[in-house]
Amino acid sequence: GDSVTQMEGPVTLSEEAFLTINCTYTATGYPSLFWYVQYPGEGLQLLLKATKADDKGSNKGFEATYRKETTSFHLEKGSVQVSDSAVYFCALSFSGGYQKVTFGIGTKLQVIP
Amino acid sequence: DVKVTQSSRYLVKRTGEKVFLECVQDMDHENMFWYRQDPGLGLRLIYFSYDVKMKEKGDIPEGYSVSREKKERFSLILESASTNQTSMYLCATTYPPSGTNYGYTFGSGTRLTVV
User: Fold this and answer.
1) pLDDT of residue A97
2) Taking phi first (over 0 means left), then psi (-120 to 50 degrees means alpha), and beta for anything else, what does residue B40 get?
């Protein structure tokens, strides 16, 4: 079946450091790819998405590029802030049908001043 | 913006109780989902619904049932709560099937503790 792999963390960075969270997937066909963010005590919010190969999703300074050849969708940010501390989930789903989403395990990011 | 409202942020229930978790959306989304979130396991799909009175089992339906009598409301039912159902429960909705994949809109979650 479909699956998403990401490290659980925690990832601890100093403010203004460069962030990379790796995400790889296994799927039959070409899914849409997503990053969701969960701030403490809240539900998940869609951060960015890409629907086809070589697409780049971006939002709030975060970016991720859909790489079909490496089945990856790594999340990057050039300079993190304390307010970026959260859990980040990589996910995939297929357009049409019920659009069920398969999530990775979530990576906890802690940014220290 | 679509709003997805879960009726309780925190619940404490006793073992054996019947528990209802409610989710209401303010848009005309056909698809609604219930997940549970546990440390080290991520999000796991319990049940989903693609229309009124229609439901499908997800990956971990045992011990749960659902009800969708109106399009905007999707209820998760724990028939007889057990301590291993202590978890964060998340409701999500998405647009109808189409060529565009918009992703989910989530509620804020209900943290359920069964004692």
Assistant:
1) 65
2) left
Spatial contact of A100 and A89, defined as CB atoms under 8 Å apart: no
B106 CB near a chain A CB, below 8 Å? yes
Chain A residue nearest residue B31, CA to CA: A98
* pLDDT confidence bin for B2, thresholds 50/70/90: low
Q: Six-digit token pair at B9?
A: 């942020």
Q: According to the model, what pLDDT value does residue A103 have?
A: 92
Nearest Cα to Cα of residue A91 among A99, A79, A81: A99
How many angstroms away from the CA of B35 is the closest CA of chain A?
A: 10
Q: Which residues in chain A have Cβ-Cβ distances shorter than 8 Å to B94?
A: 99
**Residue contact A96–B99, C-beta within 8 A:** yes
How close are the terminal C-alpha atoms of chain A, in Å? 41
**Confidence band, pLDDT 50/70/90 cuts, at residue A96:** low
Residue A47 Cα distances to A6, A44, B5, angstroms = 16, 9, 20
Tell me if chain A has a CB within 8 Å of the CB of B51: no
